[in-house]
Amino acid sequence: MPKQATRPTVHIPGTTSHTIAPRSGRHHREGALRYLRAGTGAPLVLLHTVRTQAEHFRSLIPLISDRYTVYALDLPGMGYSEIVPGASYDEPAMRAGVERLLTELDLHDVTLVGESMGAVLALTAAADQPDRVRRVVAVNTYDFRGGIARSGLLARVVVGGVLAPGVGPVVAGVEPRAALRRILQGGLGDKNALRADYVDELLQVGGRPGYPTVARAVYQSLPSLIAARSRYPDVKAPIHLVYGEKDWSRPSDRDANRNLLPAADFTQVPGAGHFIALEKPEVVADLLNELA
After folding, report:
1. Among candidates 77, 50, 207, 53, which has minimal Cα distance to 141?
2. Average pLDDT taken over every residue of the chain
3. Cα 113 to Cα 216: distance, rounded to the nearest angstrom
């Protein structure tokens, strides 16, 4: 993988870091993908949220690695996966990265677990790969208008600036620590769950050459994530929808997905916000270990 950044500052005990080599297609090149691996047992793939990376699951992985072989992916261009100039970050392109992990590692009987954007990708990848996916756990699907801008006034101002024509790329390249911290805390019921060293890690990744372009493109991809809801009914595997009581989604957003997926199990986590894996990892772990 091209050396586009230094090593992660956050290490999850028991994990090892691996790389899936880049590949060239007929019309574009798909960059190298980085993932973490831990544990033993049936395969379980973790897909992270908007503006985060595999270390988002730092507290969850140790709670499930005695029952699963865990693969935590850095989605294309994010974390320490390669940034490819001109690449798309719409839902189909990010889903292709997830499916590369499944096919390159030849994983079968997989439990796909995603949070936020990762939850959407878990569902759509499962629709594409029915022979590989055993079940889907979708935590706080990021498939509603506004997205992270519902975090609060600061998020609305910052994301609005990032998306604005002309000045958007400039705003995307300026990410003060205090602003990032406050925006992410808007997705938490327990603000103290956001650890300082994790914010520092995210800022290090945000300093990678080309990363502001990726961040802006990911925010611009929200319409494609909303459109991807049409794929949910195509999933053949059992689905578990998990929502935080204080998630950015509204009751109407959750009800719309429950109507699309009437056979899905539904859990609401009291007091939790959008980033349940950060503040209540034991809740997700209990569900996954029960399903193992």
Report:
1. 50
2. 94
3. 25
- pLDDT per residue over 234-255, tens digit each? 999 999 999 999 999 999 999 9
Strands 33-39 and 16-20: antiparallel
Three-state secondary structure readout of 219-266: HHCHHHHHHHHHHHHHCCCCEEEEEECCCCCCHHHHHHHHHHCCCCEE
Query: Beta 68-73 vs 33-39: how paired, if at all?
Result: antiparallel
Provide the residue type at 257 as one letter.
N
pLDDT in tens, 13-67: 999 999 999 988 766 789 999 999 999 999 999 999 999 999 999 999 999 999 9
Indicate yes or no: pTM above 0.90.
yes
E strands, the chain, in order: 16-20, 23-24, 29-30, 33-39, 42-47, 68-73, 110-115, 133-139, 239-244, 265-269
| Residues 64/291, Cβ–Cβ less than 8 Å | no
Walk across the sheet containing 110-115 and list its strands.
16-20, 33-39, 68-73, 42-47, 110-115, 133-139, 239-244, 265-269
